[in-house]
């Protein structure tokens, strides 16, 4: 039977990199001695007051259709929070509630990008961008953030990629997988380009609350940018709430009606009890988020310290997020092969960073979403494995 052309647009190249993760997760579920460092799901439980709030709402009957754009209180809470952090005047109608950053990005892509349009995204980039940005028929133009530049954006490369068809630039700060936090200068250069060519900027800021070094700047806060920027974010990483699918977009009010039309036929509102839990997370559970960030910082330092014991293994110390990038080119040409051999020899699963873009070929991404003990043991296994290769 014939299928739609969409099925091709959503089948990205990155899928193979996940094979090791799937294998490792299966082995972990069977109780085997494996250490899974190939996924970015926080190991912390969602703070219990947030869970309690959801349970109370469920028991109280908050189980019916909820407001499609999101409840006023939640939208106002998100708006206030964003305004306080960025100084950008933000009101309820700038905020639309979605099922995670992923869903906000998907919806934004459908609303802003058409067949024939080009959308620039800086790679390494989150694996699902490829399908998400091309879902409506636009063409993704990946622009390198080169490894020898510490995976930082290079404005000349971005400029060179702009054509008459370019409609938007997608940035991720902090970045997954590199942990790079963009500076004001870097963001200003992108903003200038966006204004000059009348482009949208879509800014994925899902790791905002997991920064160790550097300052988070939302590109929307730069002059002339709020009216052309869509900022997407969620509680997934900040509050260990990946499974709750609680996210949003912050955008010019003119997009609100279009989001509404799309959400009416796609999502029909996030469950009310999740929205109430999200309000609680954003108002009363900020400290929980800060505590998690401090633990991630300690783990980042631990992993970098332990991996420094290996010979010929350059490690990029991340400014943010929950991953360490490691250059394995001394041992293997590509990260997929390294990950496969490492897993078979040691039971430690890491992810081929090449799945995030060409700039990261020959690198792997190691998540620090496990306890200090597990991370120390994983690093010990990696270092002694590399010793045997040497
Ligand atoms: C850069 C980036 N964007 C979006 C997402 C998806 O986040 P959410 O759970 O909010 O959909 C992730 C998840 O790892 C991510 O790393």
Description:
The chain is of the alpha/beta class. It folds into two domains: 144 residues, Aspartate Aminotransferase, domain 1; 237 residues, Aspartate Aminotransferase, domain 2 (3-Layer(aba) Sandwich). Helix content is 41%, strand content 14%. The chain is built from 13 helices and 13 strands. The strands form three sheets. Strands 2-8-7-6-5-3-4 form a seven-stranded mixed sheet, with helices on both faces. Helix 3 packs antiparallel against helix 10. The chain is globular. Bound molecules: pyridoxal-5'-phosphate (PLP). The site of pyridoxal-5'-phosphate has 13 residues, from helix 5.
CATH architecture of the largest domain: 3-Layer(aba) Sandwich
Instruction: Tell me the overall shape.
Output: globular
Portion in helices = 40-55%
Distance between the termini: 53 Å
The whole-number mean of residue pLDDT values reads 96
Could you say what the CATH topology of the largest domain is called?
Answer: Aspartate Aminotransferase, domain 2
Instruction: Note the total helix count.
Output: 13
Succession of helices and strands = HHEHHEHEHEHEHEEEHHHEEHEEEH
Distinct ligands, ions and cofactors found in the model:
pyridoxal-5'-phosphate
What's the name of the CATH homologous superfamily of the largest domain?
Answer: Type I PLP-dependent aspartate aminotransferase-like (Major domain)
The first-level CATH class of the largest domain is given as Alpha Beta
User: What proportion of the residues form beta strands (DSSP E)?
Assistant: 5-15%
* Structural classification: alpha/beta
């Amino acid at each position: 039977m014939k299928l739609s052309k969409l099925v091709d647009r959503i089948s990205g190249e990155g899928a193979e990199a996940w094979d090791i993760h799937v294998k490792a997760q299966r082995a972990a579920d069977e109780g085997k001695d494996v250490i899974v460092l190939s996924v970015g799901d926080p190991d912390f439980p969602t703070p219990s007051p947030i869970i309690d709030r959801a349970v109370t709402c469920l028991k109280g009957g908050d189980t019916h259709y909820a407001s499609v754009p999101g409840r006023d209180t939640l939208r106002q809470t998100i708006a206030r929070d964003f305004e306080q952090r960025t100084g950008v005047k933000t009101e309820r109608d700038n905020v639309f509630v979605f099922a995670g950053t992923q869903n906000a990005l998907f919806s934004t892509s459908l609303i802003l990008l058409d067949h024939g349009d080009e959308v620039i995204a800086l790679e390494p980039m989150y694996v699902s961008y490829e399908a998400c940005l091309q879902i409506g028929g636009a063409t993704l133009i990946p622009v390198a953030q080169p490894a020898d530049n510490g995976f930082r954006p290079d404005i000349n490369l971005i400029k060179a990629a702009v054509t008459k068809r370019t409609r938007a630039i997608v940035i991720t700060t902090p970045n997954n997988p590199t942990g790079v936090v963009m500076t004001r200068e870097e963001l200003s250069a992108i903003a200038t380009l966006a204004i000059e060519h009348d482009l949208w900027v879509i800014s994925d800021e899902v790791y905002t609350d997991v920064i160790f070094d550097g300052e988070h700047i939302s590109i929307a806060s730069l002059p002339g940018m709020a009216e052309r920027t869509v900022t997407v974010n969620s509680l997934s990483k900040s509050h260990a709430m990946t499974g709750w699918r609680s996210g949003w977009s912050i955008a010019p009010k003119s997009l609100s009606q279009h989001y509404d039309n799309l959400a009416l036929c796609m999502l029909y509102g996030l469950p009310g009890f999740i929205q109430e839990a999200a309000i609680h997370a954003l108002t009363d559970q900020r400290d929980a988020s800060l505590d998690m960030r401090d633990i991630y910082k300690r783990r980042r330092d631990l992993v970098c310290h332990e991996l420094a014991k290996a010979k010929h293994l350059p490690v990029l110390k991340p400014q943010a997020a929950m991953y360490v990038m490691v250059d394995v080119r001394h041992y293997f040409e590509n990260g997929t092969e390294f990950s496969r051999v490492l897993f078979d020899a040691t039971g430690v699963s890491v992810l081929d960073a090449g799945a995030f873009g060409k700039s990261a070929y020959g690198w792997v991404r190691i998540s620090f979403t496990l306890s200090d003990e597990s991370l120390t043991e994983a690093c010990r296994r990696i270092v002694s494995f590399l010793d045997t290769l040497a």
